[in-house]
Amino acid sequence: MIGTGISQFIPVLFSPLLTRIYSPSNFGDLAIFMAFSLIIGMGASGMYEYAIVLPENDEDAQNIIKLISVLSLSISLLTGIVFYIVSWFIELDFFYFLLPFSIFFTVCYNVISYWYNRMKKYKTLNLIRIFQSVLIIGGSFIFCNIKNGLIYGYVLGGLFCFIIYVFNFFKHLRQINFQKIKSLAFEYKKFPTLILPSSLMNTVSSYAPVFFIKRFYTSAQLGSFSMSNRVLTAPISVISTAIGQVYFKNLSDYYNEKKYDLIKKTFLQSTYVLCIISVFIFLPLFFFGEDLAIIVFGKAWKEAGEFIEIIALASMMKFIVSPLSTILIVKKELNKVARWQTIYFFTSMTIFIIGCFFSIKTLLWIYVIHETILYAIYYYIMKSVINKN
Question: Where are its TM segments located (predicted)?
Fold first, then answer.
């Protein structure tokens, strides 16, 4: 958990330097590149990486990795062919041709994460995550004289994961038993058929602002949004998640011991703690985000500061509600989670389709209202599940 926190904070810590080297447009290009890499990478693996930790013997786990390798290489190659054909008709920036590599590198990172979790090599995994973040930042500085240096830095971090992937699995990948991996693909078919659709909806919903801002506004505005999002999601990724993991463990123990009164008490106490912490993090950003952005990132990032002030309230809501949602897993109310995710996906798409006809600030205010309402409903669902019992 410490390694994950450090790796997520490294990009934020070096942002004040990078924002003085790269323009908002450069960060906008990075945002759209990362969105494509992560979303297509999720589909390319079929979410089979979740199954790596499940088999009793390592041989089956390695065969699942072979299955993932075949799927992801095929999708990456297909993506490259599609972009090559599109380039005949539309002039594409060179970085789009790096996308097939980045997609496969994304899958490699996910496979490594689940494999090392299976092997309980947590320290090694933390070191890999930290070193990858350092490489991404280092690459961004090394390629600073190139237009898309941020993207080259990001791909360099992915290349490191690919090298670790080859080092661990190449000797096993030389012999592929297609009958065996076909059998495992069928055995764990719930991952691509049940988990993948909802996970894709979740991820696409998260990146919806990136795609719509890229399509209807400017790359500079996308870069400003990306930077504001980077600042606001850091507390959610580290502090909120850390609290959520402790909370989840306590809830699981209480549920197994049938201490239902303690479940409700823990839920309310966690809500209170998250609310208090969020006030000290997000209210200063709501009132002084623009001034802080100019001081920390430079005058070119004034718009990012304005976006931080707008989005801070929505981020505050996510900070409070997201870690509490594990109560629905403990109570085995996954159908409620699926329904909420479906509603969230379609309402997100709707508000961006409507909102893109307005100014970007109006769109972001609509987005904030949507996030606040949907996460308030999510919290109400959790509370009703607790009160029901």
Answer: 30-52, 64-88, 94-112, 124-143, 149-170, 191-212, 232-251, 272-298, 310-330, 342-360, 366-382
